[in-house]
Specification:
This protein is an all-beta fold. It is 0% helix and 35% strand. The chain has strands at residues 54-61, 81-89, 93-97, 104-107, 113-126, 133-145, 150-156, 180-185, 198-203, 211-212, 226-233, 236-237, 254-261. Residues 92-152 form the Sema5A/B-like TSP-1 type domain.
């Protein structure tokens, strides 16, 4: 207030009392809280490997709760799930011998007898993704007369030809997934040896699995004013196979959300 009703004049006294006073008011609406941006929690523990042998996957998660976004605050940036490969070891192999084949006639030029032979093959399986493979070959020979009498005179394992050294250990698989090869060798210790000096077998035949990379940042809003959409993308890849495409990952490689820019004038 001011001392103007009337102003002091001709030596009159000035107004008595304070020219300003204050009171508290409680009728106004509360102020809106400031937005709170989200923050990531710590990573959780790695899950168990998805496969006991061969190449498997482990996963761990984190959550946008430290703090949780509020009042229009920004969501956490980055992946909420982390994935890595595990194991990578060959599954134990199973070996079994096949039944003997029927006797096959090799030579019937002798009028009194015929030479016959039959075979037995070793079958090898390595894990659920492996194709059935073959190992050692056994063979038996017999001489049969035309009156039905047969005499077995030879039991042969062609892979155990004399003159060879012991086989070396199998080499490491040259691929982590998608099918690789292992090799082993032996040396001829005599002037002449029959058979191969090297062998190879398939390994790690399980398919390479695609893994999603992190989402990209959200794009700008598709409109300059009003309602639009924002998009983000992610890439499906694998450190074991650079040629993996998005079809090898489960889920979509793109995502979108609505966005809003100020009213159009």
């Amino acid at each position: 207030r001011t001392c103007t009703n009337p102003e002091p004049k001709n030596g009159g006294r000035v107004c008595v009392g304070q020219e300003r006073t204050e009171i508290y008011c409680h009728q106004l609406p509360p102020c809106s809280a400031l937005p709170v941006d989200g923050g990531w929690s710590q990573w959780g523990y790695w899950s168990e490997c998805s496969d006991k042998c061969g190449l498997g996957m482990q996963r761990r998660q984190r959550f946008c709760t430290n703090p949780t976004p509020k009042k229009g605050g920004a969501q956490c940036v980055g992946c909420d799930e982390d994935i890595k490969t595990c194991n990578g070891l060959d599954c134990p192999e199973t070996r079994k011998m096949s039944p003997w084949t029927q006797w096959l006639t090799l030579d019937s030029s002798d009028r009194n007898s015929v030479l016959q032979r039959r075979f037995q093959l070793e079958c090898i399986a390595r894990g659920k993704y492996s194709h059935l493979q073959t190992g050692n070959l056994q063979q038996e020979d017999r001489l049969c007369t035309y009156d039905g009498r047969c005499t077995e005179f030879a039991h042969i394992n062609p892979s155990d030809s004399s003159g060879w050294s012991e086989w070396s250990d199998w080499s490491s698989c040259d691929e982590m997934c998608g099918g690789g090869q292992q090799f082993r060798r032996r040396t001829c210790t005599q002037q002449k040896c029959y058979g191969d000096s090297s062998q190879q077998k398939l390994c790690n035949e399980h398919p390479c699995r695609g893994v999603w990379a992190c989402w990209s940042e959200w794009s700008s809003c598709s409109v300059s004013c009003g309602s639009g959409v924002q998009q983000r993308t992610r890439h499906c890849g694998s450190s074991q196979n650079p040629f993996i495409d998005a079809n090898d990952c489960i889920g979509s490689h793109s995502d979108q959300q609505p966005c809003y820019v100020e009213h159009c004038s």
